Recover the amino acids of this structure.
């Protein structure tokens, strides 16, 4: 991690290895590729796997290894992210694979959010995506009675909801209101989401 981001080509640069839980991140690992997603999270590939790290490098958010995924991760040579879709492309010796991340580049201003899938059908097991957001926007999911069901913040221009309420229970069939407010609290938009169980 570098602490002189204003002008890295002039002046002093202080590089430090990030520490997570008092251990140096990727100790003795050769990093083969780096990509940054719309939420400013870092994707790092090594000879042993693929890692997603928080924007400041202080948290290891996700780990993919040969033991945890069927993806061929031992020979990653290049990482690239599509800023509009948030899809991470991973080039290996065996070809290119992709993974749908939960962050896209943020919008300059809020407009009507895109919510997908909509409606959520009974056989759906993933997370609902909400795109077209500004960075770090507050996203509130409310039921038809106006009760808050879930709240999160956008990662770049996207927020994800796993269809669970604050207590970890699956939400019921119904129409849900998705309210989005910018980080500064100066703009807001809303959309609707139908869930069929």
């Amino acid at each position: 991690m570098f602490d002189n981001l204003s002008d890295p080509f002039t002046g002093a640069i202080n590089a430090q290895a990030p520490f997570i839980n008092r251990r140096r991140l990727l100790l003795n690992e050769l990093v083969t590729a780096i990509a940054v997603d719309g939420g400013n999270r870092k994707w790092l590939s090594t000879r042993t796997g693929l890692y997603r790290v928080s924007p400041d490098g202080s948290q290891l958010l996700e780990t993919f290894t040969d033991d945890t995924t069927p993806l061929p991760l031992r020979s990653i040579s290049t990482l690239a992210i599509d800023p509009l879709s948030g899809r991470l492309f991973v080039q290996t010796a065996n070809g290119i694979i992709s993974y749908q991340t939960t962050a896209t580049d943020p919008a300059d201003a809020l407009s009507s959010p895109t919510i997908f899938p909509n409606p959520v059908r009974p056989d759906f097991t993933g997370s609902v995506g909400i795109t077209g957001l500004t960075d770090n926007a507050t996203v509130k999911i409310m039921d038809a009675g106006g009760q808050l069901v879930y709240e999160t913040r956008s990662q770049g221009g996207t927020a994800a909801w796993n269809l669970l309420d604050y207590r970890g229970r699956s939400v019921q069939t119904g129409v849900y209101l998705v309210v989005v407010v910018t980080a500064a609290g100066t703009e807001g938009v809303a959309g609707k989401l139908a869930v069929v169980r």
